[in-house]
Amino acid sequence: MLILGLNMFHADASAAIVLDGEVKFAVAEERLNRRKHFGGFPALAIKACLDAVGARISDVDHVAVGQDSDANLAKKVQYALANPAKILNFIRLRQRKESMRDVRLLIAKALEVDPAHLRFQEHHLEHHIAHIASAYYCSPWEKTAGFSYDGSGDFVSTMTARCEGNQIEVLDRVFLPHSLGSLYTMICEFIGYTKYGDEGKVMGLAPYGRDTYCNEVNKIVKLDGEGFRLDLSYFKPLGSNQGMQVSPDGTVKLARHFSDLMVKLHGEPRQPHTEITQRDMDLAFALQHRFEEVFLHLLNQLHRRAPLENLAMAGGCALNSVANGKIFDRTPFRNTYIQPAAGDEGLAIGAALHTYHSALGQPRRHELKSSYLGPEFSDSRIQGALQSAGLVFQKMHRTALLDAVAEEIAGGNVIGWFQGRMEWGPRALGNRSIVAHPGLPDMKDILNARIKHREWFRPFAPSILAEYQHEYFEHGHPSPFMLHVYKIRPEKRKELCAVNHADDTGRLQTVTRDENPLYYDLISAFRRKTGIPVVLNTSFNENEPIVCTPEEAIDCFQRTRMDVLAIGPFLVVKNPQPSEGRIVASSEVSKA
Ligand SMILES: [Fe+2]
Q: How far apart are alpha carbons 232 and 229 in whole angstroms?
C-alpha cells in the first residue's frame, strides 16, 4: 500500500512516501527549490518521493494532508463572531483554503497527468494530530503520552494525547489566540528577529541575559488548571488574519505580533541588524525562562492524565532543545521521542502514518531510527559534478578517506562532509554537515568569518559517540536528532570549548554505529588522533537551505573559505599546503 503524505500551502511544505507502513523517503520542498521555509505546493518533493520508490502517481493508494480546514470550525466561527473586524478576513481565508482543498487537481497539474487517472483516496488530518502522529508512529513504543505545540495549526496551538496501539486519543487542545509559539515569536520580533524561524536564534541569545524582566514576562502568560492563557494586551490581535501568512508565491511572512504596550513598557523595538543591547538579551532570557516553565507545567499536567514513562512530541516549539533538555529533571517522563522534523515539514509523515495505522487499521512495525530519508547521489554523479566544476580531487578507499578527513579536522581545518542520504528535518546530522575541531578556542570565530556568518551568540553543536555521552555531559538520555541541550561536565568544557555555550551547555547529537556507520567511524578516527570522541557539526550551507545535491555542496565549498570537501569517496583540498601537514596523496589515492 502506497501513501503519499503532504504538508502544503503552509510553511515548510513537504512530501513523504510510505510503503506498507514504512517511511521510504521524505523531503521538504525548500531543499529542492532552494527557497527557505517555502510554503507553497510541494510539487518537486512529490516527484522526488515517487522517483525514490519507482512509482507513478497512479500507483498511489492514498494521499494524506496534515491540515483540515474543517477542524475546530466552531471555535473559529466563535472567535470571528466575537471579533467582528476579523470576519471579512476569516471568510477570505476560508475561501483560499477551499481553493487549496482539491488535492487531486493540484497533483494532476503539478505532474501533468489526467486527474481521471488518479485513483487515490484523499484524507485530511488536523494539524496537531498529524504532529503527534509523526512522533508516536515513528517511536518504538506501543503506549505513550503525546504532545504537540507550535504557533498555530487549524486554530490550535497545543495538543495533548494518549497514544496506544493504532490510536491517538486527543485529551486536550489549547485554542488560539493562546499560543506559546506566538509568545516566542512576539518577543523575537520585538528584539529584532522578525523572520519565520528566527526563534532558534533567540534561544541561543537567552543565556547572555539576566533576570531583569522575568516578573514582567511572567505576566504575559498565566498558567491555569489544564493549560495557559496569554494576556492579549501585549499582542496585536491574533486570529484568522494575523500571525504567519503565506503569500501566493509560497513566501512565508510574519505579521507584527507585539502591541504598543510592549513599546510603552520596554521602549522602541530593536531594528534587525542593529546592535543587540542588554535589554534585548534580558528579554530573551525572560522569554526562554517563562517558556520552559509553561512547557514543563503542561507536560506535568499531561502526565497526570497519561501517567506513562514515554513522551512522543512534535510541533515547531519541540525544536526548543533547551527546554527539551529539562524534561527529565522536571517531569516524570523518562524517555522522549521527538520527531527529527518536529516542525511543519513533519506533518507529511504524520498524516501518512495516521492514515495507515488509524484510518486503515494497519499494524505498527517500523520505528524511525534515523533521519536519513532524503535524496542520495551516485559516485558517478558526484564525480561528474566535480569534473564540471574543474576541481582536482582524489578518489579514496573508505579507511583512507576517514583517516585523511580526521587528520584535517585534527589539524584545525574546516571540512564539508557530504555523504549518503540527506537528513529529514532542520538538523544536519552527519550527511550534509560541516565538521571541525570542537576544542580549538577560535574555531567558532573561524567558522563564522569564513563560512557561516552567523550571529556571534549562536553556538555550534557537538556530535558525540554515544558511548562517551556520560563522560562529557551531565545527562545520559540519547539525543540522536540533536534536539536536547545538556550541561557539559566541568572537566570537559575546555576540551569542548568551541561547542560549549555561554551557559556551559551543548546541543548534542549522540551518534551510534547502527544509525550512521560512516559518521561514527569518522568521529572514531578523530578520537584516535586527538583523544576527543566529539566533532563540531554545523549544517552544510551558507545562508541558504542546507545543500541537497553534489552541485550545491561544491558551489558552497567554492564560494566559502572551507578547507576541504569530502563528498562521497572523493576528497578535494583547497589550496593544499604540504608544509602545514596536509594529506595530499597516498598510495591508495588515485588522481582523477
Ligand atoms: Fe505546526
A: 9
* Measured distance CA(350)–CA(277) in Å, rounded: 41
User: What separation in Å is there between the alpha carbon of 23 and the centre of ligand 1?
Assistant: 20
Q: Rounded to whole angstroms, what are the CA distances from 373 to 15, 51, 131, 337, 531?
A: 11, 13, 18, 17, 32
88 pLDDT band (50/70/90 cuts)? Answer: low
Q: What sections of 357-498 are H helices per DSSP?
A: 379-388, 398-410, 443-447, 469-472
Q: What is the per-residue pLDDT for 588? A: 32
pLDDT level of residue 541 (50, 70, 90 thresholds): very high
DSSP line for 75-111:
HHHHHHHHSGGGHHHHHHHHHHHHHH--HHHHHHHHH
- The Cα–Cα gap between 75 and 92 comes to 17
The tens digit of pLDDT for each residue in 1-18 reads 999 999 999 999 999 999
The residues facing 221 across adjacent strands are 230
Neighbours of ion ligand 1 (CB under 5 A): 150, 153, 344
The pTM for the full model equals 0.94
Which of 127, 24, 34 is CA-nearest to residue 549? 34
Distances, alpha carbon 236 to alpha carbons 5, 197, 470, 503, in Å: 34, 19, 46, 33
Terminal Cα distance for the chain, rounded: 44
Spell 334-367 as b/e; 16+ CB within 10 A means b: ebbbbbbbbbbbbbbbbbbbbbbbbebebebeee
Q: How many Å lie between the centroid of ligand 1 and the Cα of residue 131?
A: 7
184 CA from centroid of ligand 1 (Å): 14
Q: Ligand 1 centroid vs 134 CA: distance in angstroms?
A: 11
**pLDDT tens figures, 98-140:** 655 689 999 999 999 999 889 999 999 999 999 999 999 999 9
Instruction: Quote the ligand 1 centre to 449 CA distance (angstroms).
Output: 34
Beta bridge partners of 573: 564
* Residue labelled with grid coordinates 526548543: 320
In angstroms, rounded to a whole number, what is the distance separating the alpha carbons of residues 592 and 380?
12
